[in-house]
Amino acid sequence: VLSEAFPNDSFLTEETETGIKSDYVWVIDPLCGSYSYLRGVETWSVSLALISGNEYLLGVVFQPLLSKIFYSQKGKGAFQNDNPIHVSKIDQLDQAFIAVEHGVFNSGKFNTLAMIKNIKRLRVGHGSGGELAYVAAGFTDGLIKTDQALMHFAGGRAILEEAGGVFVDFNGKPALTYLDRNRTIDYIACSKNLVPELLKYVI
Questions:
Q1: Which of 8, 43, 141, 175 has the fewest Cβ atoms within 10 angstroms?
Q2: How far is the C-alpha of 32 from the C-alpha of 11, rounded, in Å?
Q3: Rounded CA separation 73/82 (Å)
Q4: Which one-letter DSSP state was computed for residue 95?
Q5: Overall pTM > 0.70
Q6: Which spans in 146-194 are helix H?
């Protein structure tokens, strides 16, 4: 449907890509959190974003089994089921609810065990789309993931940033956008105030 409506745009998914030939690229993950889906965990989602350069213009994360849809438009705000959302106001790590992706534990890039001693609660998250949407809505306060390709996080990043959150690499800089299915990044997603606290645990 999107390709018919926007025939001049490019498309990037985990399975296919049309070749990046336009200024506007639709990035789609039709099953974000595939292992959760296979095991019957309801948090899997459909995720998509519209990107131009390094700008995230639109984002959608839909969790059909939970009847939750998160979405954003640049400059127009972020929403869950038509209700405005914003990242949490928690700015102290010892009060924070932080999610990590299971691969972070053995990545050798982040000292997860040291961080656990200084946070309020830990969540081992599932697909990037839903987990980023949860940070955007203030359900959790931060998310840490390693070795993630653009398709996995584009929709959630768009929503997070429009909800007032930041999406940085492990150097604390805005994470770059690679329009390449085989290029991955490590990222921290949270409110601005928690960034320096979480960066302390980067190895």
A1: 8
A2: 17
A3: 13
A4: G
A5: yes
A6: 150-162
